[in-house]
Amino acid sequence: MKSLARLLCAFAALPAVLPAQSAAPAAKPAPDDLIKLEEFTVSGTAATGYRAANSITATGIGAKISEIPIPISVVTNELIGDVQADTLSDALKYVPGVGTSPRNESTFLVRGFSGLISYRNGQYRRQLFTTYNVERIEVAKGAAGIFFGTVRPGGVINYITARPKFDAAYTDGKVTVGDHEYYKFELTHNQPLTKKFAVLANVAYLDAGGDQQFEFLREGYANVTFQWKPTPNQSLVFEAEGINRSRFYLSSYGSRAVSNSRYLFNRAVPAANQTTTAAATAIRNWLTSQGFSANPTAANFAPTFDIFAPAYGPSDPLGRTVSLTTDARQTQKSRTLDLSYLVKITDSLVWQTDLNQAYDNTTGLQPSTGDTNPYADGSFRFNFEHFINIRDSWNADTKLNWRFDALGGNHTWQLGYEFQKVNFLRPGYLDAANRYNNSPMGAFVYNFFPGVTAPVSTTAGMRASGQDFNIRRTTYDDQHSGFFAGQSRYLKDRLHLVYGVRYQEFKNTTHFSKPVTNTGLRPGVLSTYDEGRADPGWTPQVAALFKLTPEVSVFANASEAVEPNFAIDADGNASQPIESSSADFGLKTELFAGRLVSTLTYYDLERGNLAYRDTLREATTSKSPYFLYGNTESSKGFEGEINWSPVDNYQLILALNHFTEAKVTKSNDPTRVGTALNYNPDTSYTLWNRYEFRTGPLKGLAVGAGLRYSEAARLTGDPQNTIMMPSFTTADLMLSQKFKVGGRDLRVQLNVKNLTDKLYRDGTDGYFADKRRIFLSVKTRF
Known about the structure:
The protein is mostly beta strands. The chain has 7 helices and 43 strands.
């Protein structure tokens, strides 16, 4: 597939070469094709209800979704509000091919590949994916090699915040209450100060409990955005955002107990010495002694099961709402500054500069080490971890956009340079052997029976160990990228091409505040310096769309991507950069004057040069880390999306994804070849629809309902772990009513999530999703 991508890229580059060979100079575009500043933003005016007409994520410049040869899903602000989505993961549940986790809002799967693949206004975002001030969420599938070079082949998620409006001054207020002591307040004010200067400000606060022991969530948000248009050909936008969150650490709930059906609650199994033997080791040893293990040397076991076994019913026998600890907590802070400048130099040239500075701080006290593996009697052992992650990043992106006519076509070329610098601080613990550890660890707790033993204190456990932060590790990442991207239209706008290439360089160094013996470059030797290795790489991309009729189009695309791979083993051996490739073939329709919009896609993705941990070698050598290098993962399948509005007051969204393949296709460990990737249901679909009464006695009433279905899926790709996540179907309901009170519009909305109160597991980690939740909100404009 990589050779195919290169061949197609070379073919698509012909429009870039031919104008230079022509005797006639490139012509100024026709008046209707002149480049406009509005093309570099997408606003709420481009969306009608659940239908978005334009997208900016896939091509770097606003374009009609129906004419972009890449599958794009857009979650509009109206849909976010209708489904009462507090986070991106809530809103993305209705997007085909996207998986989320109920416990980790930062974990997304797109077409089978997970990772931190989320962006905010085109800039990488690490945490706190809330929906405050979000105008829309765009998911560009597959090919993203030019505009997002270091991405997974499944695609990227980019959420776009609202900009000030110049046409009206208004204040929106919204109050939401819910079960489990849920209280949320949001206030937005838009103010045009002059015809050239406007400001948008947002504040919000959330205070919530939960149905589990000690659960709480507190969150504060503030944002201010200024937009200045000094001339009709210039725009300057400055945005400052801050989010604080504190919550009980959800890993304290023992609801992902993984064991073996022959071992757990088996009275014949002798008790293990928990001070010397981990539960996973005890399980493996006993299975081996009984002749059950397929691979007795591996630090895992086969077959495996947990609470999914029919004998134990749908709930966790160890207690979904039972906590291991009383005071485990996570605190997160994010600060973001954005400056965007656009200037139209001529009718054909636009210069664009985007600057971003982001600060992310995550600290936590949590249970750690072995709390997902019970012993035969159902007890656990675990200890505690105190960690601090601080990430500072600086991004500078510049781009020159040129539009011209040549050889019977209209072309938009983009030449850009991007720079990213990241400082990542991870304070840790230096032990007596001068080994750096990511976190100070607490004292072990042994023979803990969930639901029987009283939950313990993480702070007390940390004090008992005597460990505290005594060393700082700072990692410095630099990334330089240059790219050329072209878009061309031919045959009276029937043929649309996207093509280009990106070059990327990576640099990674690490400094320790004290000498350590466990660096990758010099293992066993005291050193304060370490270095990651990642070769530079080229990432081409090509895509084409052809309109069979004005309403029906076929498209194809291919792309390559490269990611830095800083895995270095205990002997100093480094991995090659991760290389990905993707190809899509599909159909787009825009029927009945745009009322029925659909996309059907077949995708073929591959991600290679992956490094898997070699736990067997680590166990036999007593050294770590070791890796199995050169692994390749692949996913193939079909996805479809329909957005239908047959009449103005009814809207329906239907999404489907089906994997024909999601597995490891190459590995130096033969037992891994053919194993499934983590949690990828063969088939999943979602449906959401809304009907609004606009006449008669029910005028102003809107009814919305949704369904989600996921087929059973393997929880992990580990060849010795065969746990299956059960299939599930859930339903959500929304009722809203518009009123006039004192001449002011008022909207009252009721949301019921998981209407049937189903107990089910969802996402990549196998954790329980929320049971039935009820929310009531009131919104008005002042």
